[in-house]
C-alpha cells in the first residue's frame, strides 16, 4: 500500500486470479503436441475428460456429480497444474508465480481450494494470494527465485512454499502455522535440481508442478490441522539452507541442461 491504493491492489489481485483461471481453462481445452521437438503430448484435456466424462466445451470447468474415487481430488490438483504448465510450454498466457516454469503450483492449489469449497469468497482468494506473495518476497530478498542460481528448489520449491502458506492462511492457520507450512513446503524440496530436457520447460517441469502442488497441500494440512505452529526448523533457516545449497550446487544442475535428465533422456 506504499505504492497503490487498497482498491487498486484488490483489483489487481482479481486480475491475477482471473489470469490463473484462464490458463487452467485454456490448458484443459488445448489438445495436441507441445512445440519444441520433444513430441510431448498435452495431457490436461484427456485427464479432464476422464475426470468428468465430458469435453471442456462449456464456459467454465465442471465438476463430476459422483466422485467415486475418494483420492480423485489429487487428480484435480494434478490436472490444474498440468494445464497451466502445458499452456506455458506452448507459449500461452500464465501468471509468473514466482517463475513461468513454476507457474502451475499456486493456481493448482488455489483452484482446488476454490472449486471444492463452496464457502470460498473473493477475500479468501485475496488472502491466499497476498500470503503466498509475502512468502515469495522473503525468498527473493534472502535467497533467489532463479533456477540459474538455485536449481529447481528456487522455482518449484519456492512455489510450493508460497502455495502452502497461502492455503494455510485460508484454512485459518495462525501466523506460526502459516510460517510452518511455508517451511515444510521448502524443506522437502531442498536440493531439487534444474535439468530440463532439450532446454525446454516441459520435462520434468510440467509434472514437477503437479508434484509441487500436491506437496503444498500436504504441507498446509500438516501445519494447520495437525500442528500448533511449533517446529524446529524456521522458515528463515530453510530459506538460508536453500541459498547455501544453491550456491554449492554444480552449475550443470542449474538451468544449463548439461546434467541430470537433460543428458540421460536425449529423446522422449
Ligand atoms: S526443472 Fe528447471 S526449468 Fe523446469 S521448472 Fe524446475 S527450475 Fe524451471
Automatic annotation (TrEMBL):
<dbReference type="GO" id="GO:0006094">
    <property type="term" value="P:gluconeogenesis"/>
</dbReference>
<protein>
    <recommendedName>
        <fullName>L-serine dehydratase</fullName>
        <ecNumber>4.3.1.17</ecNumber>
    </recommendedName>
</protein>
<keyword id="KW-0456">Lyase</keyword>
<comment type="pathway">
    <text>Carbohydrate biosynthesis; gluconeogenesis.</text>
</comment>
<dbReference type="InterPro" id="IPR005130">
    <property type="entry name" value="Ser_deHydtase-like_asu"/>
</dbReference>
<dbReference type="InterPro" id="IPR051318">
    <property type="entry name" value="Fe-S_L-Ser"/>
</dbReference>
<keyword id="KW-0411">Iron-sulfur</keyword>
<keyword id="KW-0312">Gluconeogenesis</keyword>
<feature type="domain" description="Serine dehydratase-like alpha subunit">
    <location>
        <begin position="5"/>
        <end position="262"/>
    </location>
</feature>
<dbReference type="GO" id="GO:0051539">
    <property type="term" value="F:4 iron, 4 sulfur cluster binding"/>
</dbReference>
<dbReference type="GO" id="GO:0003941">
    <property type="term" value="F:L-serine ammonia-lyase activity"/>
</dbReference>
<dbReference type="GO" id="GO:0046872">
    <property type="term" value="F:metal ion binding"/>
</dbReference>
<comment type="similarity">
    <text>Belongs to the iron-sulfur dependent L-serine dehydratase family.</text>
</comment>
<keyword id="KW-0479">Metal-binding</keyword>
<dbReference type="InterPro" id="IPR004644">
    <property type="entry name" value="Fe-S_L-Ser_mono"/>
</dbReference>
<keyword id="KW-0004">4Fe-4S</keyword>
<dbReference type="Pfam" id="PF03313">
    <property type="entry name" value="SDH_alpha"/>
</dbReference>
<keyword id="KW-0408">Iron</keyword>
Amino acid at each position: 500500500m506504499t505504492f497503490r491504493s487498497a482498491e487498486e491492489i484488490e483489483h489487481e489481485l482479481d486480475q491475477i486470479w482471473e489470469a490463473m483461471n484462464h490458463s487452467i481453462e485454456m490448458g484443459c481445452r488445448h489438445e495436441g503436441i507441445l512445440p519444441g521437438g520433444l513430441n510431448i503430448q498435452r495431457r490436461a484435456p484427456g485427464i479432464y475428460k476422464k475426470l468428468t466424462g465430458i469435453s471442456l466445451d462449456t464456459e467454465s470447468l465442471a465438476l463430476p456429480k459422483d466422485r467415486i474415487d475418494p483420492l480423485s481430488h489429487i487428480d484435480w490438483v494434478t490436472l490444474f497444474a498440468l494445464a497451466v504448465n502445458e499452456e506455458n510450454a506452448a507459449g500461452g498466457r500464465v501468471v509468473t508465480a514466482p517463475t513461468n516454469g513454476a507457474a502451475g503450483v499456486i493456481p493448482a492449489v488455489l483452484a482446488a481450494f476454490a472449486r471444492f469449497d463452496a464457502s470460498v469468497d473473493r477475500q479468501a482468494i485475496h488472502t491466499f494470494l497476498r500470503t503466498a506473495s509475502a512468502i515469495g518476497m522473503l525468498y527473493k530478498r534472502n535467497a533467489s527465485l532463479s533456477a540459474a542460481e538455485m536449481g529447481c528448489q528456487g522455482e518449484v520449491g519456492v512455489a510450493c512454499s508460497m502455495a502452502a502458506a497461502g492455503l494455510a492462511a485460508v484454512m485459518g492457520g495462525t501466523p506460526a502455522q502459516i510460517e510452518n507450512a511455508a517451511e515444510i513446503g521448502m524443506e522437502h524440496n531442498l536440493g531439487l535440481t534444474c535439468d530440463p530436457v532439450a532446454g525446454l520447460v516441459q520435462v520434468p517441469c510440467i509434472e514437477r508442478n503437479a508434484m509441487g502442488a500436491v506437496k503444498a497441500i500436504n504441507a498446509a494440512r500438516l501445519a494447520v490441522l495437525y500442528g500448533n505452529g511449533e517446529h524446529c526448523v524456521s522458515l528463515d533457516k530453510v530459506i538460508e539452507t536453500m541459498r547455501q545449497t544453491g550456491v554449492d550446487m554444480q552449475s550443470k544442475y542449474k538451468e544449463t541442461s548439461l546434467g541430470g535428465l537433460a543428458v540421460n533422456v536425449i529423446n522422449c
